[in-house]
Amino acid sequence: MKSINLLTAIGMGALALTGCAKKSEPVKQPNIIFIMSDDHSYQTISAYSDKLIKTPNIDRIASGGVIFQNSFVGNSICGPSRATLLTGKHTHINGQINNRVTFDGSQETFPKLLQQAGYQTALVGKWHLRSNPTGFDYWNILPGQGEYYNPHFIEMGQKKRFEGYVTNLTTDFALDWLNGRDKTKPFCLLLHNKAPHRTWMPDTADLKLFADRQFELPDNFFDEYEGRQAAKEQKLSIRESDMDLVYDLKMADKEKEIVTPRPGLANGQRNRLKAMNPAQRKAWDAHYDPIIKDFKDRKLKGKELDEWKYQRYMHDYLGCIKSVDDNVGRVLDYLKANGLDENTIVVYTSDQGFYMGEHGWFDKRFMYEESFRTPLVMKLPKGYNKRGAVKQLVQNIDYAPTFLDLAGVKIPESVQGVSLKPLLKEGKVEKWRDALYYHYYEFPNEHMVKKHYGVRTDRYKLIHFYHDIDTWELFDLEKDPQEMHNLINDKAYAEVKTNLMKKLKELQVQYNDTDRSKY
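^ that's the sequence the OP posted. Answer follows.
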């Protein structure tokens, strides 16, 4: 994993604080603000690494609490991850195994249990679970994936279009709700950003931020996937037409001379531009028209085209991150200005990881590290004195029980995750999980990532790809952090393989995921 730039500074600050500050009792029912962006990679948060971008406001969350070095999801795709957040259960248990399923809102969720304990609850932003939200006193959600510019929102069942940029609007609605809430009650607010989900359309204010920046290609950008059949057969490559010139990279020339293999996607992007207001479109064209002209003049092919696509992708994706970080700052400033910063836990995460060109890819889905791993930082309320890095293996099944535990609400026995509360206090945690379970189901689909399940320990990973193939992969993450060398048939790892197979079976029994036939 990449180095943690804030850890030294955070750790020194923590030592200074613990040496002179008197410890206070934890807040009995802390407010909870859970900010989750869509497809935000840990590689693009400077608390983890400042190689690609600075995110000072998300870093403020980390410096006021903890940064999880080993945070992962159980199924790296949007809808399933959101259902896991709500229920504390893996997707084969809560029913949301893929994006095509409609979430069963009648089941028990942590917002419902917090409501019963006297909390006010709210959800704003991306929902993406098809059914209407339940367990919330207030909700205002994007239909489907939502749009970046002038999006529709559905407020308590009423659909309305708003002028503006989606990240700003989502934060506006969140702060409006905080202002109007019943201030005699604790609250739990879920703020779910659309950004930086595909097609990575930055705010007009951020279009030119990275215009002069040339990003270094990942070492394995031209990976040939030797010994990894599923990786070879995917359809999420920047280097292929999987990343569309018009749909993804904004080459919607007015002459319509740039033709791509999937005209439906290209038309969708052109329609998004038509939905802009005159000021937005003027700023957009002023930025992209010269890029389009230069692209057409250069007539790029081969590796030059591949590298050009990577640069365009990074510029647009990181532009979306800038707006996310700015709006995180608005939330933190609001809490401080209104005297809420000491009794509120603020969480920032993503619904899964994302590829920043590693293996030549964008998107997610695979159990490989960039997709499986997700950022997780928490600014802690009064009484929780832990600061700096948390190294234990944690997963998104743990969010629901953590919030319930912090609020003093009994965690249902059916919840599969565990509370992270012990990790938020100073002192040694005697016992913690030694492995994580993963299962991805959505195949066939646009990106053609095979169905697979697997186990990860602190050092090793074992993956089984199944359905129309039957292949196994084993990685030594200490020696091969980029997961380039499949060791499944390496005799030197025979004992490791045996132990991982055993652990995988144990986790499948523990999480009640032993029946392959229904998938």
